[in-house]
Write a structure and sequence with these properties.
homodimer, about 230 residues, alpha+beta, Pnp Oxidase, Chain A, six-stranded antiparallel β-barrel, about 35% strand, globular, disordered N terminus, Pyridoxamine 5'-phosphate oxidase family protein (chains A, B)
Amino acid sequence: MPLAHEPSTAHATDAAYAPTERTVPTRARERAGYDRALVHAILDEAYVCHLGFVRDGAPVVLPTLYGRVGDRLYVHGSTGSRPLRAAGRQDPGLAVCLTVTHVDGLVLARSAFHHSVNYRSVVVHGTAYQVVDEDEKRMALDALTDHVVPGRAADSRPANAKELAATAVLRLDLAEVSAKLRTGGPNDEPEDAGLPHWTGVVPVRRGYGTPVPADDLAEGIELPAYLREPAC
Amino acid sequence: MPLAHEPSTAHATDAAYAPTERTVPTRARERAGYDRALVHAILDEAYVCHLGFVRDGAPVVLPTLYGRVGDRLYVHGSTGSRPLRAAGRQDPGLAVCLTVTHVDGLVLARSAFHHSVNYRSVVVHGTAYQVVDEDEKRMALDALTDHVVPGRAADSRPANAKELAATAVLRLDLAEVSAKLRTGGPNDEPEDAGLPHWTGVVPVRRGYGTPVPADDLAEGIELPAYLREPAC
């Protein structure tokens, strides 16, 4: 993973995003990365992000679903929702920060100070614009659905004109973006080695339970293959 | 769960937080709640929040650990980190939005439009202040540790003076706060009932794997009782 010790001389390549002043952390820089494949992998493993924007000068952070198509992220919502209304139609867009976080483990050190969490996160800074092109909007909504359940978009009724009109979609380009991650075990002070506390990592697991059919699911409609993952 | 259809006449009670203009959603108001026990339960089940603040006019959203003590939340970080530096020492504090989200299920409707997610979230608006009182700081750090792993604070070496000085703690009062949640199955349009798509809910599970001892864990130190939960 490329590191960014010299952001002023860095530049974007096919393999990595260019670090900027606000994507270079003020501390723990060795945990930051700009590798495109790493960023995409972290984004693709989750489907809920936390979207921040400024309203009346104050920050607002709301959880929302997202999808990725290449170097673009899409979020959607009711045309009446606050961020979607704020983003308006194209100009000037909405300054946002979109953050995705996976927690992979709890790191229990002998000292309280060195307790930590293993995680992988992506922070995207940028301006979100409402998607006005209908084809792009449909493509984005399919991407959103397939991001949550791969294969589902083709196995559901597409939005009709009324539903499409009631849905707003925001596009956010992946340009000013960084990943940050911590892996591995505790980093205790050498002088604490003899303390009697258990030390190690508790893995955090995510998974799915057995799908629960809706009460009115017609007989004969079987669970689709894309939902037949092993349960957690 | 009390609803807030008339926020202008609502007021805080022991049982509920008072709705405000920015804690009443513009849509899906029936999903919003202000019940204190509900808010606390959602906060206590998670330990990672997404903290939003404004820097140079733009939103920033960072994942961070938190703890709760009554109607106060605490987050911590290096004294050199951006939000902690921005919060300064007491005055004027830092305007923040702290959001916690649990995803409980994927809701697969017959129509793409009615796909949804079952979730429980809490959004806290307010001003975060640096904790300067050393006793409160120690108490907050213990609460943070015990929030992630209940019982762990007493089973680790407390921070020494140097570590305490390197750690900044922010306090955020729970006052302007709301919960939002969705539960239940898909809400398809009646005319879609005959469509051949599987419909229902895929439960989302969270859990822990088997704890992995650090390489240098001394023989004879057994896994503490507070970590002997059933694995996921």
